[in-house]
Amino acid sequence: MSYPRADDADICLLLEGTFPYVSGGVSSWVNQIIRAFPEIRFAIVFIGSRADDYGSMKYALPDNVVHLEVHYLYDFTTPEKNPKPRHGDTVAFEGVDRLHKCFRHAGSPDPALEAFRAIAPEILPGGSLPEGDFLHSKEAWEIVSKGYREQCTDPSFVDYFWTVRIMHAPLWKLARIAHALIPARAYHSVSTGYAGFLGALLHQIRKRPLILSEHGIYTKERKIDLFKSEWIRDNRNVFQRDPTELSYFRQMWIRFFEWMGRFCYEAADPIIALYENNRLRQVADGARPERTFNVPNGISLKRFAPLRALRPATPPPVLCLIGRVVPIKDVKTFIRAMRRVVNQLPEAEGWIAGPEDEDPGYAAECRNLAESLGIADNVKFLGFQKVDELMPKIGLTILSSISEALPLVILEGYAAGVPTVSTDVGSCRQLIEGLEPEDRALGPSGAVVNIADPQALADAAIALLGDPAAWQAASQVGIARVERYYTDDLMFAHYRRVYEKALAAEDD
Amino acid sequence: MAGIGFELRKLLRKDTLAGLLQAYAFAGIIGSGPWVLSIVGILIIGLLSSTVVVPSFLVTQFQTSVTYLIATSLILTGGLQLAFTRFVSDRLFEKRDEIVMPNLNGLLTAVLLAASAIGIPCLFFFLPGFSVVYRLLMLASFVLMCAIWIVTIFLSGMKRYKAIVGLFALGYTITVGAALLLRPFGLEGLMAGFVLGHGVLLGGMWLLTAHDFRPTQLIAFDYAQRKSMYPILLAIGVLYNLGIWADKFMFWFFPDTSEPVVGALRASIIYDLPVFLAYLSIIPGMAVFMVRIETDFVEYYDRFYDAVRSGGSLEYIQDMRDEMVYSIRQGLAEIAKIQTLAVLVTFVAGPSVLDALGISSLYLPLLHIQVIGAGLQVVLLSVLNIFFYLDLRRIILGLCAEFLVLNLVLTALTLWLGAAFYGYGFTLAVLITLVTALGILDYKLTHLEYETFMLQ
After folding, report:
1. For residue A395, pLDDT beyond 60
2. For the segment A161-220, what is each residue's pLDDT rounded down to a tens digit?
3. Is the model more confident about A124 or about B219?
4. Which of A9, A312, B207, B348 has its CB surrounded by the most CB atoms within 10 Å?
5. How far, in Å, CA of A168 to CA of A170, rounded?
6. Are residues A481 and A393 in the same domain?
């Protein structure tokens, strides 16, 4: 398959594991942004793990994507068949050694960032730190074996050795990508991690601005992956193992991504978060506060505003959870809450609108739970539903999730005049109670409850559904809030300013 | 040689003097290989028949004939031995034991054809005017020797050392006995004894091998595929054997040091006998080396690579590396001790031995220097063996080439310098090659972890 090619572009998007090969929230957002600026010529660098992990494109490429290149970090090609012993550049490896010392040194990250800036360009083709030297030189061996001796608490040297290799090898691949990439007037990464590192490298060598938009927090998500991953080995025996201490290889990976994040934050300006909690997290991870701000996702009012007129005068006593039936959405808490709601409002119904095929076992458990609580008639599993058709028939949108970022479903509900009851995760408190003083002055557009607290969830829902005045008030606040802060027009306007500034910037 | 280490350890674990002696005896026989043994055989035949065969010139003719047979057959098959050993161990590793024997038959067929193709013209070029019977016996011996070198490679792997030792005893008893019985028939009689004895030896070894491998088909030629043979091993085998024999051939064909014995075949009595005597002195050294390398070294070698593969700590990996180095050092030191002993014995017994063989005591210095050279050759062989374990084939090839060139150049130099320098060429060539080899070994072992991990 051939990709569009160009000699240069305005904005180069650096996309790791998202658009156009993976569908999901971030990918849809990227699609939305590209289509919102037809006058801007976009280039896309897609970075994947291995070619086998991806099928065909999940999105049609917009016409203003003039250039697309696809790279896979873990499709290892052995550059040398019979490598010969060699010496690396002593100065370069001293720099590497210094950099790793700085990593381990608690305190100000500035020396590490400075050492990084000095060493990073050397991994580019033609630099003093080529991949062959990393893989085969005696100096690299000295650093790796010293690192193992001085730091590693896991006994297995061969695992340490390969962890170091696999961790670092993609950096040279990224350097080659950066070296060969067509010129662009600004770079825009939608995550830190490897794409963020590529952005930092491009910013340093091409002297053009790097914009960073984070939907989730890459470093945090990677940490969750790493805690769960079983492929990272732990070779300590029962005497060596301290259960409070993470396997050293996990720690290595976590530190690696933390520093990758820092390099990216250091190079990026602006650093855009989706909502306030994430912005604070970015600052805690090393982003300079003055470069950060929030641009929330926006929705199209045109699509949802007409739905308000379709609802009956009294709000239907229907609580609706819109989302996939998977453990992270904690559907069981919603079902338990329904028991209490039905006790008070016997005609109330709980709808669960979302596909069940991702985790069929969990879906079956949910159905059994509804049955054993005796509310099988009140709790309905609807499968995937069109949001536009659903909104006029429901009284509340419910989120019982244990993790969310900025759920569009709350905003879509607001636009259609439906208040929400949600757990206190991600941006939900900000969406319901407001963020800045004027926003807060509007009042609550629903209620926020703790996670895994069915009683509180039920009580909050009953309070709204059982009191038409309160419901009406929350509905009006929701409409006002989404119109003032969360429309797509607002989001596009924000990014228009960001892009205009970056495109007009002088070379650094 | 993978099998022998296990057997040796078993014997040593008995912790009795008899077990120890047995271990060293096996190691001596397997380690020195049949070619030292066949030299022993020639010398015995020579000693025994020199008193009874008249004229004694016949004995010289017989010894010269056999020496040429050994030298040429080793040079012809040396490479095949190494390459086919590798082929066999690869197949055994793949658990395809059943195709080993058919391939042995295939290889023997090819060797038989090649040896005949080379041997028959030689009969006309080098042995004109000799009886047809003698010439046919020479051809038969040549083919037999070539075949024996090939089958020999199975000896250590079969773990039936008693049967093998018995077989060799039988083969050589027949050789010597038949030669003595047939001595009235002159040179032809002696050669017929040789052919008979070696025929029995080859037949016995072949039957043992066939019994152990239980072939499912008669013949196969899988070994001939390029990817299953290692050309570099072929080259190593040829170069090594050429290197070992280069000085001898030069002495045979240098007019001052040689005389025609059988047709175009010349011999250098003053050089050959000291050389063969010197080779006898390496048997204890080979035994010691075998025991050290196949037990201690291999044990730590296995642990080293196990630790690398299965996640040992770097300290442990380096400890095993150090233990490998220590066992090599230990082995080389023991070889040095035992060879020194052998040298001292030769120095003491040399005059009377030369006297008994009827060689002028003027050539005593030659025997001395040859014994030292042979002792050094044991050490060189040990180091080459370690390189084989570390799979450093290119280095072995380089060392063999170095040895061949040095032996040619330095021997030529000593021939030009005169009788006082005879023997120094070979010994110096071994010494210089050994120093190079030890230098490389030192470097390789120092950087073993680096090269194991970083050059993959």
Report:
1. yes
2. 988 988 898 899 999 999 999 999 999 999 888 999 999 999 999 999 999 999 877 776
3. A124
4. A9
5. 6
6. yes
B317 interfacial to chain A (CB closer than 8 Å): yes
Whether residue A472 is found in the same domain as residue A328: yes
The pair of three-digit structure tokens given for residue A115, joined into one six-digit string? 């050492």
Alpha-carbon distance of B435 to B101, in angstroms, equals 40
Q: Tell me the pLDDT tens digit for each residue of A225-236.
A: 666 665 666 666
Measured in angstroms, the CA of B310 and the nearest CA of chain A are apart by 8
Residue B168 has pLDDT above 50, yes or no: yes
What ipTM goes with this model?
0.72
Given a cut of 80, is residue B206 above it in pLDDT?
Answer: yes
Within a domain: residue A202? no
Of A157-161, A264-268, B43-47, B232-236, which range is least confident? B43-47
Give a yes or no: residue A463 inside a domain: yes
Question: ω into residue A327 within 30 of 0, thus cis?
Answer: no
Considering just the CA atoms, what is the radius of gyration of chain B in Å? Answer: 22
Contacts of A137 in chain B (CB under 8 A): 454
pLDDT tens figures, A447-476: 999 999 999 999 999 999 999 999 999 999
DSSP B53: S
In angstroms, rounded to a whole number, what is the distance separating the alpha carbons of residues B76 and B119? 11
Question: Which tokens belong to B274?
Answer: 């000291």
List phi, psi (to 5°) of A185: -85, -15
Contact (CB<8Å) A83/B450 = no
* Number of folded domains that form chain A: 2
With 90 as the cut, is the pLDDT of residue B295 above it? no
State how far residue B387 is from chain A, nearest Cα, in angstroms: 18
Query: Which segment of A428-442, B60-74, B315-329 scores lowest on mean pLDDT?
Result: B60-74
CATH code, domain carrying A424: 3.40.50.2000
Q: How far apart are CA B390 and CA B119, in angstroms?
A: 37
Residues A327 and A248 in one domain: no
- Kindly tell me if the per-residue pLDDT of B53 is higher than 60: no
Residue A478 has pLDDT above 90, yes or no: yes
CA B315 to chain A, closest CA, distance in angstroms equals 8
Residue-wise pLDDT tens digits, B195-205: 999 999 999 98
**What kind and span of H or E run contains B267?**
strand B265-267
Token pair of A148 as six digits: 């193992």
Residue A460 lies in a domain: yes
Yes or no: say if A206 and A120 are a contact pair by the CB < 8 Å rule: no
Identify the CA nearest to B259 among candidates B248, B268, B251: B268
DSSP string for residues in A267-326: H-SSEEESSHHHHHHHHHTT--GGGEEE----B-HHHHGGGGGGS-SSPPSEEEEES--S
Cβ-defined contact of B454 to A135 (cutoff 8 Å): yes
Containing domain of residue A325, as a range? 301-486
B302/A266 Cα distance (integer angstroms)? 49
Does residue A152 lie within any of the structural domains?
Answer: yes
Q: Could you give the dihedral angle defined by the CA atoms of residues A89, A91, A95 and A100, in that order, rounded to the nearest 10 degrees?
A: 60
Residue that finishes a domain, picked among A254, A284, A316? A254
Question: H or E stretch including A449?
Answer: strand A446-449
| A61 DSSP assignment | P
Summarised one tens digit per residue, pLDDT across range B5-42 is 666 777 777 777 777 777 777 677 666 666 666 677 77
Q: How far is CA A470 from CA A350, A438, A465, A474, B341, in A?
A: 20, 20, 8, 6, 109
* Alpha carbon distance, N-terminus to C-terminus of chain A: 37
Q: Are residues A319 and A466 both part of a single domain? A: yes
Whether A328 and A247 share a structural domain: no
What's the CA dihedral at B143, B149, B154, B156 to 10 degrees?
Answer: 150
Nearest CA in chain A to B308: A158
* pLDDT value of residue B51: 66
